[in-house]
Amino acid sequence: MKSSRKKELEAADCGDFSSPTRGQLAAAKIHRPLACISAAAAVLVDCTAALFRPESLRSALLVPLTNPRRTNAADADPNGQRADAADVLSRVPRRTPESARGTSLRGCLQHVVALSKMAGKSSVVLAAAGAVAAGYGLYMLMRWRKYRVLFSPVFTEHGVPIKKKIYKVRFGKVEGENRGENPMDPPIIKDDDLYWLRDDKRKDHAVIAHLNRENAYFEHKFKPLRGMQAAIYKEFVSHTKETDEEVPYAHGPYVYYARSVKGLSYPIHCRKSRKAGTNEPMGEEQIVLDHNILGKGKSHCDVQQVETSPDHTLLAFTVDLTGYETYDIIVRDLATGIEKEKVEGCAGQVVWGKTNAEFFYTTMDEEHRPHKVWRHKLGQPQTQDECLLVEDDELFWLDIDKTCSGRFLVMDSGSPTRSEVRLLDIETPGATIQQVQARSEDHRYSVEHWGDNLYIITNTDGCINSKLMQTPVKAMGKR
Length: 479
Fold this sequence. Notes:
By secondary structure, this protein is α+β, with helices and mostly antiparallel strands. Among the domains are: 2-147, no CATH class; 154-174 and 181-240, no CATH class; 242-297, no CATH class. The protein has 11 helices and 22 strands. The strands form 6 sheets. Strands 3, 4, 5, 6 and 7 form a 5-stranded antiparallel beta sheet that branches. A hairpin with an 8-residue loop joins strand 14 (370-377) and strand 15.
């Protein structure tokens, strides 16, 4: 008798409902309403296992009901075992998050079968009805969160219905805002019924819901053209060499290049040793950065810049994993692959200094405009980085680079019609930033350095297609 009872309890503890104990049956009769609600919740959780992290959601729903709570002595079963709601719920089989996605339907059936054996058919019907109602409620909640509609259609055959919201928009002079030189005064005010769609922080639920509805309408309208879309894509790919290699370039003792492989989404950055006195590669290929490994399992992965250190032992690259075009700078040891540094919230550019000891980068303002240049020393926290330059004019963007000679850091402030270049001699300790030429109306230029001279491409003197000019480094700042 004892061994039979032991087998019953072991079966129950393992989640085997083929032989429910009398304690379970008693608990189901005493706490039938609670058991039904719990079963409905369990069924609902399993139905939505593919959409949520099942273990955390399941725990959130069931833990409040399963706290140890003893019943009165009158609730004991004939064998003296206490029977309460916690005992019933403790028999609900748990699964790991890894297996939950593939077994959600099986889990639902397990709960329904278990309840039917413990509490009778009427409870099963009630639990199933509760599960259906809860499922419909969840569907409506998800519909509201995504589209901001409940019973109204997401779209019609004519598009997405929308209530017009009229905003008064000023064109011209506005106090406290930079509207350029000589803005209209008084300003012109226009009605704009689409201004509400502006969401600089990408967090407005109404705007996001509207875009989701527009996307749903697009998918509906273009569904008949999916076959044509696939055919066009196939034809396009047939004219593309998917496995290819860029023209290699010599840099120090190596030859660097990037290559693509058919079936892979991103390029692979590589290098080979360089034959002495030539630009020809030799030896085995070394993968510097595999963009595909970096982006594995991520919805977005954009590598903006890949730069090796002056002694070719470190790699600095900028990567955006959000799609918001805000980048992190990651520094890796090329010999071990270990990450050594990480600088967050950058504009996507990185330039090494004279040695491995430092690099330069830019950051953006609230309008996502690159406007600051920073110096970062390896080994120190980002909070201690030195700000070298701030571009306050909202019409100008800051861009950084290094001259081919490796001597100067180039800081280029540019707008559509004007530019202004500053240079920092990174080979001279304590050097200060020097301006090549002050910005002026309709004057654009770029600067390169070699030897004792600066080489400037400029549109000065009305040269529409630009011209190349030369000036000594010491003449910097003079016209």
